Amino acid sequence: MIGTHLAAALRERGDEVWILTRRDPKEEFHVQWDPTRGIQGVARLEGLDGVFNLTGAPIADRPWTKKRREILHDSRIAATEVILESLAQLDQRPGFFIGAGGLGLFGDCGDAEIPDDAEPGTGFLAELSRDWEVAHLAASEVLGCRAAVLRMTIVLSASGGAFPLMVLPFRYGIGGWLGNGQQYTSWISDRDCIAAFLFVAGHDDLAGAFNATVPDPVRNKEWCKALGRALNRPVMTHAPKWALRGALGELANDLFLASIRAVPKRLTEAGFTFEDTDPEATFARLAALL
Q1: What is the torsion angle, in degrees rounded to the nearest 10, for the CA atoms of residue 160, residue 193, residue 147 and residue 134?
Q2: 2-287 is classed in which CATH architecture?
Q3: Domain spans of the chain?
Q4: Which of 155, 150, 179 is nearest to 165 (CA)?
Q5: What is the separation of C-alpha 224 from the centre of its chain, rounded to a whole number of angstroms?
Q6: pTM of the model
């Protein structure tokens, strides 16, 4: 979803966009790659201005079994290492390498604000996010280029991802907050997400890790009630912790019940301005596009 929006934004401003695909290339600017063997015909990518790395299996679509954990790890860390190894073969290497990361890096931090330089948390998701970030930032040594990571959780978009799924129970009048609803929910809209990628790409002095989330995250109960107001639906119920944990296990704790009050200090101090900061207004805009 992010890649589709990002490619469209780049083309709209006049950039030539090459897409790495695991399928047989059917378009001129598609290049085939394999997460275990690398990029085929990598020489076609000589002279790139930069690379955006968004590879990674969906984190929340099924419980974290042992096999699923391996897939989540390999599709992020191992795949990123393979991409870097392939790009290192180029004579003219990219000028920047910007990856997608996860705010799950910090774990459950309660009510504490989490700046970009906060210490990582513990647990599977925190360790996965940390290792993924390390893999992205290794581009500075492997390719000798500027490397950055944008840490995100929920990216709201009408074209896919979490938002269309969130809307369904609310439209049937059964939507509600998660657990006790007191945990902070970090999020970013699709257009702010793409703008943040382009902002970091366009500033040669920006490198390292950035929290890519709205400046003022709210508690989950307030966030979900904002969705109800945007859809003109009452929000009177919730999904209890025991039900979430029973259905999803550790995934429920780390993704849905953890409180992540992250703030985008580095982005805002660099001059980035968020367009969507009010949950209800953002929900209403996106709902009109469904």
Answers
A1: -60
A2: 3-Layer(aba) Sandwich (3.40)
A3: 2-287
A4: 155
A5: 20
A6: 0.96
